[in-house]
């Protein structure tokens, strides 16, 4: 295990004036927000409710030598026409730290320090990972650049959409600063402002066509379910129903604003997160995961999947895809040797080494796994670049989705009312 170094800049220059936060303190600050949200949920969960280089790999066709106009050249031009008419890739994402690409760092003015971002970007980017999160792999597969956070104004390019996800966020209204309803309000503002620019003859980030053809993604509910899991189980059904009702409301507002393609993630196997499985007491399954927290996650996912079924009926001319992230992520633990993972509950950034690298009372990256290590968890809560890449590949495949639709086919195909299992 390599020793961690928390010195150095964040890749954005060495000037002073920002909040320079070392790894132990930055997690205390950011994860404290999650803890507060959990406390609020446990005690009062019943609170009321375009284009920049889409990089479609269109491969340029060389001009024929001389004045030749062969039939083969004409055929190539005909083949290119449908692809040239394909609208640009536009994505809008709503979520928490699982898909935050730097939003909470921008909103809080936190300059997250190395070793964050070390594997892919080579510098911290505001992601709570050593590299990419799942949505980054989605963007890469669709040949578009990473989705910029809504509040990261400097250097952002919103021509391919916006990421509204913020670490610590909840679906529950008012339980966090950037709960789902706030993210939806931000989207509505962004849309109205964009279209207003076009109406004034100026160039906005996303056109009317872009909004109509965009994919609307949600990956939220993890913080809510950790809160629910720490309340009496006889209250779960009511509380989970209230959380899902917030997602229903959000989908309805997006639909009224033109959304027709939805990609919805269930929660992962929260009881298998090292910060939960290793730290918390209670019944553990044969793979070391905390049973009660996983049960809460599965109960939420069942209601969320049922919601997607209902919304396919009520929201006409839509495609709504629900993806079972619990099955994907639990599979990494239960079948870890299949993926070359030696210690499925070990963190990369921790202390003490295998099997958990989570010595009590120690913080930061005293023992840091090698960049090429096949370790799922970065810090006990968030995935490594390696883990996110595995999860993204399976999620995009459609194998764990209802209906069985690949991400690429949904993005590149037209919207339609889709049913089936």
Structure overview:
With 421 residues, the protein is of the alpha/beta class. It has one domain: 3-Layer(aba) Sandwich (Rossmann fold). It is built from 13 helices and ten strands. The protein has a six-stranded mixed beta sheet. Helix 4 (134-141) crosses helix 12 (385-397) and helix 7 (222-229) packs antiparallel against helix 8. The longest helix has 24 residues, at 291-314. Mean pLDDT is 85; it is low at 1-22, 35-40, 42-83 and 416-421. It holds the Pfam family Lipase_GDSL. Keywords: Glycoprotein, Membrane, Transmembrane, Transmembrane helix. One of its GO terms (molecular function) is hydrolase activity, acting on ester bonds.
Estimate the helix proportion, in percent: 25-40%
* Structure annotation, total helices: 13
Kindly provide the radius of gyration, computed on alpha-carbon positions and rounded to a whole number of angstroms.
22 Å
Structural class: alpha/beta
Largest sheet: 6 strands, mixed
Q: What is the straight-line distance between the termini?
A: 45 Å
Multimer state: single chain
Family: Belongs to the 'GDSL' lipolytic enzyme family.
Transmembrane segments: 25-45
InterPro entries: GDSL, SGNH_hydro_sf
Protein name: GDSL esterase/lipase LIP-4
What are the key terms here?
Rossmann fold, 13 helices, transmembrane, two-stranded parallel ribbon, about 425 residues, membrane, disordered N terminus, alpha/beta, GDSL esterase/lipase LIP-4, single chain, six-stranded mixed sheet, about 10% strand, globular
